[in-house]
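tool=predict chain=A
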Amino acid sequence: QLRYSMACIDSKTIRAEPTLPEFDLPAAVTVDRDALQRGVKAADLVADHVRLRMEAGADALVIEAEGDTDAVTLELDGDDIEVLAAGEASTLFSLDYCKKLVRTLPAGPPVTLDLGADFPLILSYELADGDGAITRMLPPRIETCLPHTKPVPHPFSTTPPTHSNHSRTSHHTDPEFPPRLTASRTHPRSA
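tool=predict ok
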């Protein structure tokens, strides 16, 4: 005979349900999970990011990705979607996070997507024949452009620097171009 006893869970250690921020997003569409997965899988073939967009007044959701040499576009309309609000929306998302999120969607119930311009994606769907509902949020991918940096020679090098952004060191003497990363740990020996 096996006996097992468990301690009760202290109610003070249970986290409260997080409160999602309220967004007034201009576009909303209900889409079939399989159609959404098809678009995400196609984007995965060419890039590491995916853009979801709708145009104001349009009856289509566009899933697109652009890599270094290839691009893919999937336009979902007609039987694949039901447009709830056709506003202007376009946001870029990390494909890694988007794949993980879409992979966990259950088969069967449609998924409602709320979109904006560079806003998080809000996904919601029902479970257990409407007895439960889940709302998930995917943050947008933020792209920043680094200003062009001047190549920096290594302090002990006799060759001129190349024009690569990968040659940054901490031994920089030009005050106009301060170093952004420390890439060298060379310490001269004392004689």
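The longest strand covers residues 60-66. Confidence is low (pLDDT under 50) at residues 152-191.
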